[in-house]
Amino acid sequence: MDAARHPVFPPAVAHLFGSARFASALTLCILGAAFSTHLLRATMGWPGLLAILVALVALATLSLLARRQAIDWYGLPPITLLVFLGWAIISVFWSTTTVLSGARVLYLLLFTALGVYLTLVRDTIQLVRGLGDVLRVLLGVSLALEVLSGVLLDLPIAFLDIQGNLTSLGPLQGIFGSRNQLGLIALIALITFSIEFMTRSVPRMLGAFSIGLATLCVLLSGSPVTMGAFIVVVLAALALAGIRRVPSATRMYWQLGLLAIVAITAAVLWLTRSRILELLNAGSEFEVRIAVWREIVRYSQMNTLQGWGWVGAWPPIEPPYIWINLATRGTQSSALSAFYDVYFQLGIVGVISFSALIGFALVRSWLLASEKRSSVYVWPALIVVALTVTSFAESTVLGEYGWMLLIVCAIKASQSMSWRDALRRHEPEPVPEE
């Protein structure tokens, strides 16, 4: 049946929801909400945040319906994403907190839907520009509130978890709730602003100012996790810059050599991890993580294959999460590692599917950044590198803006390097009937 003869909306409504201006405005709203969840919860509570997210998903659905004829759905989404989400949904049935698990799965699906929408209606440079505009505002607001708290009032802003440490040069939290969150978001902003500067998407002065703002926030966050991720991202950017300049005929050999260097470096870093932690002043944080991970391994032995069921951020008073916090004398809201969190909540099956999702996203985006001439292809690769490195010490990638960015990068890379798309290109042409 011809969709054009049976429109979903009247022409005026279809023009509104299908317009580029509506998609651009909705993109800014989605990115702003995803990166401001802590601020929205602190000011509006969970009901306000959920109402905003549901409204954004509804508007995104209307926009997709209005644009349905212009969207190519083939090869979307990646199989690894479907497997991970499917296992998380099924885990509700064996979870010890069935109702809560069901609600948290729906919360994860909200950000999945928003990530899929961004990927379908905006190309990479439009996403970079939209994210750049949003993060400039959010980092600026964060610094302004830190100045208000630490300099003008000399009092913490308790409901936003801002401690007012600006006069002692950090650590700062901004509007994101913790120094690790501010640091990671500032690192994402630094990557985004750098791509804007390289592609000349913004005026040079604005681009330079934005890079300086993000760098300042990275440093003032005082986050050892972010500093480690920052070093890896810089090294990855330098490696990509070198590989993009070598002849295509020898590029594969350079890629294999780089892979060998990464493997050797990872082994050396593991063997010298104690000294590195001392240099980063992260010893106490690492000890907390070790204690939490040890308890996770102990409790996971009861449900090794399937895990305890998906809950995302830990419910503080529900077992077995309360038991781990009591054993470690902490108040953790996550396993302080995405991989341990997935293992605890979704078992071995979850770890394999999650590792495949993030691994394929990393490899595909890296190969695209190596082969494509435009600098905009570097953005997904470096974002996935930042998320992957941070995932070893934080669980941010499993929810909200971290999960949404992973979805965007994974689908963007899959659209250009999907094995299903390769099969479609090599399908034999139908033989005409005689």
Automatic annotation (TrEMBL):
<keyword id="KW-1133">Transmembrane helix</keyword>
<feature type="transmembrane region" description="Helical">
    <location>
        <begin position="253"/>
        <end position="271"/>
    </location>
</feature>
<feature type="transmembrane region" description="Helical">
    <location>
        <begin position="137"/>
        <end position="160"/>
    </location>
</feature>
<dbReference type="InterPro" id="IPR051533">
    <property type="entry name" value="WaaL-like"/>
</dbReference>
<feature type="transmembrane region" description="Helical">
    <location>
        <begin position="73"/>
        <end position="94"/>
    </location>
</feature>
<protein>
    <submittedName>
        <fullName>O-antigen ligase</fullName>
    </submittedName>
</protein>
<keyword id="KW-0436">Ligase</keyword>
<feature type="transmembrane region" description="Helical">
    <location>
        <begin position="46"/>
        <end position="66"/>
    </location>
</feature>
<feature type="transmembrane region" description="Helical">
    <location>
        <begin position="342"/>
        <end position="363"/>
    </location>
</feature>
<keyword id="KW-0812">Transmembrane</keyword>
<feature type="transmembrane region" description="Helical">
    <location>
        <begin position="180"/>
        <end position="198"/>
    </location>
</feature>
<feature type="transmembrane region" description="Helical">
    <location>
        <begin position="375"/>
        <end position="395"/>
    </location>
</feature>
<feature type="transmembrane region" description="Helical">
    <location>
        <begin position="205"/>
        <end position="222"/>
    </location>
</feature>
<dbReference type="GO" id="GO:0016874">
    <property type="term" value="F:ligase activity"/>
</dbReference>
<feature type="transmembrane region" description="Helical">
    <location>
        <begin position="106"/>
        <end position="125"/>
    </location>
</feature>
<keyword id="KW-0472">Membrane</keyword>
<feature type="transmembrane region" description="Helical">
    <location>
        <begin position="12"/>
        <end position="34"/>
    </location>
</feature>
